[in-house]
Amino acid sequence: MKRRTFFKAGAAATAALASTSLLANTPRKLRLASSWPKNFPGIGTGVERIAERIKVLSNGTINVQVYAAGELVPSLEVMDAVSAGSAHMGHTSSYYAIGKNPAFNFFATIPFGMTANEHYAWIRYGGGQQLWDELGAEFGVKPLLAGNTGPQMGGWFVKKIDDAEDLQGLRLRYPGLGGELLRHLGATPVNIPGGELFTALQSGTVDGVEWISPWNDLAFGLQRVCKHYYYPGFHEPGHGFALYINLELWNSFSKEEQAIIAAAAEVENSAMLGEYNAHNQSSLEQLIKEHEVQTHKWPEDILSRLAAIVDDVIADDAARDPFAKKVYESWKSFLDSQKQWAETADIPYLAIRK
Amino acid sequence: MKRRTFFKAGAAATAALASTSLLANTPRKLRLASSWPKNFPGIGTGVERIAERIKVLSNGTINVQVYAAGELVPSLEVMDAVSAGSAHMGHTSSYYAIGKNPAFNFFATIPFGMTANEHYAWIRYGGGQQLWDELGAEFGVKPLLAGNTGPQMGGWFVKKIDDAEDLQGLRLRYPGLGGELLRHLGATPVNIPGGELFTALQSGTVDGVEWISPWNDLAFGLQRVCKHYYYPGFHEPGHGFALYINLELWNSFSKEEQAIIAAAAEVENSAMLGEYNAHNQSSLEQLIKEHEVQTHKWPEDILSRLAAIVDDVIADDAARDPFAKKVYESWKSFLDSQKQWAETADIPYLAIRK
Q1: How far apart, in whole angstroms, are the C-alpha atoms of residue A120 and residue B150?
Q2: Which chain B residues contact residue A115 at CB under 8 A?
Q3: A353–B112: do the CB atoms touch at under 8 Å?
Q4: What pLDDT digit, counting tens, does each position of A246-298 carry?
Q5: Once rounded to an integer, what is the mean pLDDT over residues A124-140?
Q6: Statement: residue A232 has pLDDT above 80
Q7: CA distance A197 to A42
């Protein structure tokens, strides 16, 4: 528990916020730093919808100005900016902060872990939000779930992957524990912002990348540099995005203002997922028919090796920090129960619907 | 298109609302008629949460009083009450109104149809809301999605069912198209309100019932009269509940008021699903361990017969009304695309996670 970090962040935030008098005045004008390119489908438009929803629900008394990645702060430093008070809010992935604490992984997505609905259920009814609040408070931010991708694709590769041997020595853009898993199979995981994926692939800086799913990947033009597209997304079964609010600011809000921001985030959590679901299949067909993309199920050799090590990789990573271990235990127990329910509910239903 | 019904409902609504001056005054006091027993887990508590959320988001200017099934109107007549203006809002299932138009089925749930996430995606991004608005306007109501059960269990039976022969002549409480399917296999479907299921089973009025899933079914005590519990819920893969608002009243709301009610409903749409997901597995274990309930996968004989006829049963039912046919076509095209995406996304992911 890094109390020093907390007090430092808290003090910086108070100073920054006091300078613009945001703690007292209305209408409030809030700066939201996003990790995504401007108006990017799904996550980008989702952030704009959050801002618009807050404005309408507050009858114009809370105005949120969205800044795309790089406009206010770099994509991967959004939480830091909210923590320090240079942005009032931020929309980002929790797992960009795993350098600070591995516990952040659990609030984004975990390989072989929870689907979007299960993740939401854990956050809201399984104790997840309390743990996330506790972690966020260490860094001076209030976290809220604010978007989910649903099941992702497994990623893009310049060269076809036939077995684990083909992964040896590859430089792959897989953030979080997905990358950690691939490291165990001999690859070198790196993290670079979404907006730089195309260039990184084109220049040969990386040999493969994961991004999201067909609708988003098509928009980035990844099909122009890669033709091999793998599934399922073992590494990200449903990425939950975070809306962070500077904690001092959050605590200064009225109950109504907090409810407005929480509702705007929570509506987006399902709206974004709905938008991905509505667009993915037609985008996938476009990738295959118009761009000669080949989809491949991950080779069994790779899937079975990953499945064999994933539990240990997750547990070992969490064991690096006592709080992360506590989060892991809550998460794991909830996941086990969800997996059992899926055996009675989702899995047999989807099987008979074919 | 029953224009006469619309004008009649509209006139009645205006009269009823004018009498309590609700079109003009604030704070607004609104009566919400629910189809569910008081504080019943999931749907019952979900309605209370909608009311509470509206109150907080509106800073107390909109107060919603929830009336349980039978307190204001009977469970199955909630939409009629909202239509006529005797209730301002209602929380119910769309498919209780299929006697008025078979199109209502598509806004609740369809056998072998969409999951909760797919249904939401169709309503929000696939043209579903526009069609539902059009249908609702015929009856003087504005419809909003406001809760989902997720995949249901297949139902409770007093006697064990080994094949389709065992369904012959049984009286089964399966509303909507699930019941229609079972009729084709020789059963007699009936609809009775949820609150009367236990008594109906105990008195032998019915031989089997579907309700929701373990968490809710346990609360109703169905395990005390039935020991055979079937899965998967082929008939209701994700029941989407409706919040109806009297259309004249809805049109009188400000943009902010409409946004508040819409956000309160939309948050509940995922909150309720999360609550079911969080509780179902532990309730299922309780049913099995403490109440000697036996779970059975539906016999293959029954599943294959149902799968063989389901497309025709749905299409034929919708063909009874031109508007229902239009809804069916939108729904079917969206479902087909979702089924394909599930083959790449959900199904292979859930398979590797085992």
Answers
A1: 13
A2: 346, 349-350
A3: yes
A4: 999 999 999 999 999 999 999 999 999 999 999 999 999 999 999 999 999 99
A5: 98
A6: yes
A7: 17
Higher-confidence position of B42 and B3? B42
Q: What is the pLDDT of residue A254?
A: 94
Instruction: Report the DSSP beta bridge partners of residue A256.
Output: none
Token pair for B18 = 């004018």
What are the chain A neighbours of B118 within 8 Å (beta carbons)?
277
Neighbours of B169 (CB within 10 A): 9
Map residue B143 onto helix, strand or coil: strand
The 3-state secondary structure of chain A reads CCHHHHHHHHHHHHHHHHHCCCCCCCCEEEEEEECCCCCCCCHHHHHHHHHHHHHHHCCCCEEEEEECCCCCCCHHHHHHHHHHCCCCEEEEEHHHHCCCCHHHHHHCCCCCCCCHHHHHHHHHHCCHHHHHHHHHHHCCEEEEEEEECCCCCCEEECCCCCCHHHHCCCEEECCHHHHHHHHHCCCEEECCCHHHHHHHHHCCCCCEECCCCHHHHHHHCHHHCCCEEEECCCCCCCCEEEEEEEHHHHHHCCHHHHHHHHHHHHHHHHHHHHHHHHHHHHHHHHHHHHHCCEEEECCHHHHHHHHHHHHHHHHHHHCCCHHHHHHHHHHHHHHHHHHHHHHHCHHHHHHHHC
* Residue from B83, B78, B80 nearest B67 by CA: B78
- d(CA B199, CA B218) in angstroms, rounded, equals 15
Query: Which domains are present in chain A?
Result: 3-148+238-277 (3.40.190.170), 155-237+283-315 (3.40.190.10)
Cβ contact A256–B56 (<8 Å)? yes
CA-to-CA dists, residue B81 to B18, B45, B104, B246, angstroms: 16, 21, 17, 9
pLDDT number for residue A25: 60
Whether residue B57 and residue A256 make contact (CB cut-off 8 A), yes or no, is yes
Q: Do the Cβ atoms of A10 and A68 come closer than 8 Å? A: no
In this complex, the residue of A266, A339, A346 whose CB is nearest that of residue B151 is A346
What mean pLDDT is predicted for residues B244-268? 97
Task: Taking residues B152-163, report their average pLDDT.
Answer: 97
User: Are B100 and B94 in contact, with CB atoms under 8 Å apart?
Assistant: no
To the nearest whole angstrom, how far is the Cα of B128 from the nearest Cα of chain A?
A: 12
More confident residue, A100 or A6: A100
Task: Give the C-alpha separation, A281 to B120, whole Å.
Answer: 16
Nearest to B339 among A120, A274, A353 (CB): A353
ipTM: 0.93
Residues 299-338 of A with CB under 8 A from B: 303, 307, 334, 337-338
